[in-house]
C-alpha cells in the first residue's frame, strides 16, 4: 500500500500549467509542421500534447533533417530528447536493423530516451530497443534479433556486446551522444572512441548537453564532420523558472536543517542530492526514522530497485528521494517541485544538471543548496558558471545547534577552483587524489596527460580486465 504523503502542499511545481508561451524555452513563431518532419511523426508529437517546439527543437530538427552533424547546447528540461529523436524517427529506414545508436551515461536515462522515442514514433514503423548493464546479455541479444532500428544504450554494454559478436555497427547511419560532456569525460572516453570509430565514417552525428565546456567541444568536434553548433541557453545556463537559493549552515546542522525544511516548507516532491553513497544511505535512514516517506537511489543498489524508484518518481508516487549523482543527469519527472543540494557538487556543471531535475518543460521549480562556511568559493564557482547570483535564504525559525564535541570536519566538497582571468590554473587531478596538496597547484593543465584538457577529478578506479566498471552507473 502506498504511504500517505506527509507533506504535499506549498510550492507544488506540478500544479503549474506548462508555459508554452515562455520565450526562454519555446519557439514563438515556428510550429512543428514547419520543421520538415513527416506526418506520422507529427501525429506522435500531437498525441504527446506538444504544442510548440522548444528553442533547441526549432533549430536542431531542421539541421538534422538536412543531414548536418549538430552540437546542441540547451538548458535542462527543454526537450533535447525529442530534438534528436524526432529526426531519427523521420529518417530511419524501418527495414534496416541497428541504423541509429544513441548513447547515454546511465541505464535510467537510456530507458527514458527509448521510452520517449517509442512514444513519439507510435504512428510509424521505426522501432527502438535498449542495450545496457543490469539486464542479462542473453536476454538483450535475443530481443535484438527482432531488428530494432534505433538502439539506445550505455557505452560499456554496447561495446561489450559488439566485442562478443552479437551485432556490428556497419548499418549505423546516425550516432547520438546525450549528455556529451559526461560521455567524453575520462570514464567513458575510451569506450566512446572505440564505438564511434567502429561506426561508418559517413554517418550523421548529434551531440547534446546542457553544459559543454570549451575543451569538451574541441574533443567532440574530432568525432564530427563540420558540425552546426546550436546554443539556445542564452545568458544563463539555468532556466528562470527555477528559483535558486542557498542556505548557510553549519556542517553538523545539515541533517536537522533538512528535516526542518521538509517538515516546515512542505515541498511536494523533492530530490535531495548527496556527494557520497554513504550519505545517501545515512540520510534515508535518518529521515525514515523521523517519519518521512523517503526513498533512496545510488549506483550500488540493485538495478530492479533503481528502476522501481525512478518509475515511482516519474509517476509522482514518492515524496522525498535521496540521490547520488546517478540521478543528476537527464532524468525527467514532471512532478519534482524541489531540488536540495545537501552536499554542494564537486563539479559546478553538476549543479546545473542536478537543479535541472525541477522546472522542466516550462514548469516552475525550487532549488536550495546547503553551503557551509568552507564552501564559499565553491558557491562562487557555481555562480560564475551559471552567470547568476544565487541569493541567500534565511530561515529564522531554525535554531542552529552548538558544535558537538565529537564533531570532525569533512572536506568542504570538491576542490575549490579559482576562476577569472587572474586565477592560476588548477591541477585538479593532483589536488583531487591527494587531499593534503593545496587545491591550487602552479602551471597550466598538461594537455598531453589529459587529452582535450578534461582533467579527471577523481582517482581512476582499478582496471579489471581492461574495463572500468565503476563508471557505468
Ligand atoms: P532535456 O533533455 O532537455 O533535459 P527532455 O528531453 O527530457 O529535456 O524533455 C523534458 C520534458 O519536456 C519531457 O517530459 C518531454 O516529454 C517534454 N517536452 C519535450 N518537448 C516538448 C514540447 N515541445 N512541448 C512540451 N513538452 C515537451
State the gist of this model.
With 473 residues, the protein is α/β, with parallel strands linked by helices. It has 15 helices and 13 strands.
* Rg measurement, Å: 22 Å
Low-confidence stretches: 1-17, 414-473
Q: Got a strand count?
A: 13
Query: Which molecules are bound in this entry?
Result: adenosine-5'-diphosphate
Mean pLDDT: 86
What can you see in these coordinates?
Helices cover 31% and strands 13% of the residues. It has helices at residues 39-47, 55-65, 80-91, 107-120, 137-144, 155-163, 180-183, 189-198, 214-221, 254-264, 277-289, 303-314, 348-355, 376-386, 428-433, and strands at 70-73, 100-103, 128-131, 150-153, 174-178, 204-209, 228-231, 242-248, 270-273, 294-297, 320-323, 338-341, 365-371. The strands form 2 sheets. It has a 7-stranded parallel beta sheet, sandwiched between helices. Strands 8-13-12-9-11-10 form a 6-stranded parallel beta sheet, with helices on both faces. It starts with 38 loop residues before the first helix and ends in a 40-residue tail after the last helix. Bound molecules: adenosine-5'-diphosphate. The site of adenosine-5'-diphosphate (ADP) has 18 residues, from helix 3. Residues 50, 52-54, 57, 74, 76-82, 116, 332, 334, 360-361 line the site of adenosine-5'-diphosphate (ADP).
Defining key terms:
alpha/beta, Rossmann fold, 3 domains, binds adenosine-5'-diphosphate, globular, disordered C terminus, seven-stranded parallel beta sheet, 473 residues, six-stranded parallel beta sheet
